[in-house]
Write a structure and sequence with these properties.
10-stranded antiparallel sheet, 16-stranded parallel sheet, mainly beta, 16 helices, 64 strands
Length: 1008
């Protein structure tokens, strides 16, 4: 295929025919061969051109040599000129400063030029006019003879303003080909190495010609503007086109699909925010670009008002900034692939702020995404890291600006709701790796003692993410991308450049992975908020990123703008548009600077929240419908289905705000209302009002705060700030020492302060606060022992009383007695025992008597008086009375059968519990013993009998054993051992064991 071929038979003069017969012409060789004469300009060393350059005649770039033409250059061609590229031609135009190729004498139609490549041409953003040529030549039609005269055909020969031949490559994007005879040409050896994308063709005689016209392959000339929204003009009239010709100005095999629908087409733009630049309106909704402070609103509106359209050619990329930038870059890859598929366009432009620039670099570098990005604009990106992030990673601190205060508050809420004790613990243990990935990768810590900078990475928290971005491989992958680095600079030295620190902790020295607060060193005097530099050495930058860190990256252009870090997307909006579109904005949007004051409402579970402004506008949850109010301009509400619910109101109006809450469960809740104000120096201060209460499912409460004339938040003056007071009253039968000897009744009475909101509820707990119950009626306490009752009341304003405690001691049971022999005193011992392990006193009265009048002669209990009336002739020989701490008594009456030295025989007549008598029968103890001069027991025997118990024991001194006899019997009334060694024994026990009787709720049992 030789381009458009017009076959006509011509009758020529004899000499012309004769010459054609004997010297046939190779069409493509003539069309594309270079001049055989010596070059007028031979480029034999790597060269850069800028400004205006003129080519006259034949110029050549030698093989292995690169000619680079810088942005804004103008290349003019005199007469009929050629630039032949055997090596490489790199053209680095930009949309705003393209490289211009044109005829020097634009009015001369005989002048033309061609830039041909048998090597490599890589061109971006060029303006090409007056180039290329089309000529008609005649040629004998081979292998056909009819007579002496040959058949003669006329052929068109083509030379493009830009062309490729002999296997050379042609890679052009962002070109404006206009008013050329032929814009682009490629021969049969280079058709598949020719790509022209994202370019405009207008006013050319021919736009594209390929010598290749058969087979399945084609040249790639997609994504271009062809003077019509319908693409290249079709051949419809057969008089104008050959049968095989599809388009009038595009000849040969070429893919023209996915053409641009408008002349002023632009690459779609992806906007990437920095850390904390993405939020959800609800848990189920998609992330949005900073609806809290509106950092990117002016940038997006500027682009939207000047030719870009949100969702069509303008695409925000909010992302989960808690995650690693490595993961965010993978999501960016997915986003860009989706944008390319949606727009049917091969490349996007990227505008990235702060940490977003690092994500873009990770995508281009590590993920090799440069082939999908034409232009990259970074705004205030910490290319070498920011020392300010050291404060956050090492100490859980953020700084003193409004955004810092907001960030700290949100991190505080997230940490608490996720069960962490501090922001530092949350950042390090959750973890939040993006914070670490902002750390500097250069020396910035100065040892306090030596005043010498440590050498990074020795005794530094290392940033392997940023270190990887700075490798040669990743830096080189930025080269094909048109990269503009915009940096901010304030008028004040307010940016942390170096940090003077104490020594690293011992824990960190022994374990570099240890999580230690200020492990690598706390800033010198950092807690001194009243004076000094707090260990922070300040310098030039945007208040967050030092200017050296922002600039330390190889970019095609670095632009410095007077702005702080947060305002930079707004301040650079027009600049960004000019870089992207190559022209200034037409429509200017109002300035949308970051607010200087902010009102923040942070509820801590379990409640949802709604805020009503002084003018009656609402933001937050609609408790009735479950929808969301968004009536306050600029306010942001996370949504009530998020784990960390909060509301922000920028530049709040003065007056009273209502805070309405609705319980989402049962338990204590807290609300913090925080006003943050930033002064002219960029320093912020906060004021906090805190409310607390107890939530119930579905229960609504109201609190109020005021924004005063200074913009600070205070609790409303007429608001109930006093918690109610609860009193506890006890009733029931009492004994001694504050013990109740029966059930006790607890009555709780709560009262609110005068003028207060009134008591909402009283709660109590009987299990040390594990379970709380709503008090409705007096409580009856029946459990014996020490009962602890906790209680408090809450008023309708949500004021909660401090928890109080009441102790109720209940003992309903009289003590019991153990009756045994005392081997030391050789007397009967009465030992008291109580169910609550209290001390029991025992009083023993021998021979109790009553006088005639019935008055007590000896101190005995009244029940004995009644017993005496019935048993005058059978008074006990001994009365034992046991008394516990609560005043309960147990009295036991004994009758002596025998009591002499070496022998004791006592019968129990009755037991009385709290004067309630229980008569006994057949309950007796017998003990017999003999002691030698050394006070050693030579004999000890016992017999104890009750209705249910019959025990006989004998101590055998020579064996030091006690035998429990098989068939018990009473002891003989002498000092003999009753021939015990010859009787049957049931059990042998070591040592001298003394059997005993034990009372138990009126019954008597025996044991040993």
């Amino acid at each position: 295929m030789s381009g458009r071929r017009i076959s006509k038979r011509y009758f020529l003069v004899f000499f012309l025919v004769f010459s054609l017969v004997f010297s046939p012409i190779d069409l493509f060789f003539l069309a594309n061969s270079s001049s055989a004469e010596a070059a007028d300009l031979m480029i034999e060393a790597d060269t850069e051109w800028s400004g205006v350059q003129t080519i006259s005649g034949y110029a050549s770039v030698a093989s292995g040599i690169t000619l680079t033409i810088k942005k804004g250059a103008v290349i003019e061609f005199e007469g009929q000129s050629t630039l032949d590229v055997s090596g490489s031609l790199v053209v680095e135009g930009t949309p705003s400063e393209p490289v211009v190729f044109r005829k020097k004498n634009s009015g001369n139609p005989d002048d033309s030029y061609s830039i041909t490549s048998s090597g490599n041409i890589y061109a971006r953003n060029i303006d090409v006019s007056g180039g290329g040529s089309i000529s008609e030549v005649f040629m004998v039609e081979k292998n056909r003879q009819r007579s002496f005269f040959q058949y003669v055909n006329a052929f068109w020969m083509y030379s493009g303003a830009f062309g490729a031949q002999g296997g050379g490559t042609l890679d052009i994007e962002g070109a404006n080909f206009h008013d050329n005879a032929l814009a682009v040409y490629t021969d049969q050896d280079s058709y598949d190495k020719t790509k022209v994308w994202r370019s405009k063709f207008s006013g050319n005689t021919f736009d594209f010609v390929s010598a290749y016209n058969s087979g399945a392959d084609s040249s790639d000339i997609r994504y271009n503007w062809w003077e019509s929204a319908d693409g290249p003009e079709l051949c419809i009239n057969p008089d104008e086109c050959e049968p095989w010709q599809t388009y009038k100005k595009v000849l040969g095999k070429a893919d023209v699909s996915d053409w641009a629908r408008g002349e002023n087409f632009k690459d779609p733009v992806v906007v990437i925010p920095g850390i904390m630049g993405s939020w959800k309106m609800t848990q189920k909704s998609d992330l949005e670009l900073d609806p809290v402070l509106g950092t990117y609103d002016e940038l997006l509106e500027t682009l939207d008002e000047n030719g870009y359209t949100l969702g069509t050619s303008l695409f925000p990329f909010p992302y989960e900034w808690h995650y690693s930038n490595i993961e965010s870059a993978k999501l960016l890859r997915t986003k860009i692939d989706e944008v390319k598929a949606q727009t049917k366009w091969p490349r996007v432009d990227v505008v990235a702020h702060s940490m977003g620039g690092l994500i873009a670099r990770e995508y281009i570098g590590t993920l090799d995404g440069g082939s999908s990005v034409d232009q990259l604009i970074t705004l205030g990106t910490p290319h070498d890291g920011s020392p300010k992030s050291y404060l956050t990673w090492e100490g859980g601190d953020f700084g003193v600006k409004l955004r810092d205060f907001l960030l700290e508050k949100i991190f505080q809420q997230e940490a608490e709701e996720n069960g962490y004790q501090s922001i530092f613990e949350y950042i390090r243990k959750a973890p939040i790796p993006s914070v670490k990935e902002l750390l500097p990768v250069y020396s910035y810590l100065r040892d306090k003692e030596s005043d010498v900078l440590r050498t990074y990475p020795n005794l530094y928290p290392t940033n392997t993410f940023l270190q990887n971005l700075k490798t040669a491989t990743n830096i080189n992958r930025l080269i094909p991308v048109a990269f503009t680095n915009v940096v901010g600079k304030t008028n004040d030295n307010d940016t942390i450049e170096k940090i003077r620190v104490d020594g690293a902790s011992i824990e960190l020295l022994s374990d570099p992975e240890a999580i230690v607060l200020w492990g690598h060193g706390k800033p010198d005097g950092y807690d001194d908020l009243l004076g000094g530099d707090r260990g922070l050495e300040l310098g030039i930058g945007d208040g967050t990123v030092p200017i050296d860190s922002a600039k330390n990256i190889t970019a095609d252009e670095t632009i410095e703008i007077e702005s702080n870090h947060s305002d930079l997307p707004s301040a650079a909006a027009k600049t960004a548009f000019r870089i992207l579109a190559g022209s200034d904005v037409v429509s200017t949007v109002p300035s949308l600077s970051i607010p200087t004051s902010l009102l923040l409402f942070m509820p801590f579970s379990p409640i949802d929240v709604q805020v009503v402004s002084p003018s009656g506008k609402r933001v937050g949850k609609n408790f009735e419908t479950g929808e969301i109010f968004s009536e306050i301009e600029g306010a942001y509400y996370t949504g009530y289905d998020t784990p960390n619910e909060f509301i922000t109101i920028p530049n709040p109006e003065q007056g009273e705000y209502k805070i309405l809450t609705q319980g989402t469960g049962a338990g204590d809740y807290r609300i913090e209302a925080v006003s943050i104000q930033e002064d002219a120096d960029g320093k912020a201060e906060e004021k906090v009002a805190t409310f607390s209460g107890t939530a119930e499912m579905g229960k609504e409460n109201e609190n109020r705060v005021e924004i005063d004339e200074t913009g600070g938040v205070v609790v409303a003056d007429d608001q109930d700030k006093v918690a109610p007071i609860t009193m506890a009253a006890l009733s029931g039968a009492t004994g001694s020492d504050n013990w109740y000897i029966g059930d006790a009744v607890v009555t709780l009475t709560a009262t609110d302060n005068e003028g207060g909101s009134g008591v909402e509820k009283t709660e109590y707990s009987l299990d040390n606060g594990t379970t709380w119950n709503i008090y409705a009626n007096p409580l009856t306490i029946t459990q014996e022992g020490t009962n602890i009752i906790q209680y408090f009341s809450t008023d309708k304003q949500g004021n909660k009383e401090e928890t109080k405690t009441e102790t109720v001691k209940i003992d309903k049971t009289a003590p019991e007695a153990k009756i045994t022999f005392n081997p030391i005193t050789q007397k009967l011992d009465i030992i008291g025992a109580d169910n609550l392990s209290q001390n029991v006193s025992v009083v023993i009265i021998a021979k109790p008597e009553m006088n005639v009048s019935g008055k007590k002669v000896k101190k005995i209990k009244p029940w004995f008086s009644r017993w005496f009336q019935k048993n005058r002739k059978n008074l006990p020989d001994m009365l034992a009375t046991l008394t516990d701490a609560a005043g309960h008594t147990t009295s036991i009456a004994f009758e002596k059968a025998k009591d002499r030295n070496g022998y004791l025989f006592m019968r129990m007549k009755s037991v009385a519990y709290d004067e309630s008598e229980v008569m006994l029968s057949d309950a007796a103890v017998q003990y017999k013993w003999r002691i030698d001069r050394k006070h050693l027991y030579r004999l000890f025997a016992s017999h104890l009998g009750t209705v249910s118990t019959d025990i006989e024991s004998h101590y055998i001194p020579k064996r030091n054993e006690t035998w429990i006899m098989e068939r018990p019997r009473d002891l003989a009334d002498d000092e003999k051992d009753d021939e015990s060694e010859r009787r049957p024994v049931r059990k042998r026990l070591s040592g001298m064991v003394i059997p005993y009787l034990q009372t138990g709720k009126g019954s008597i049992t025996g044991g040993y």
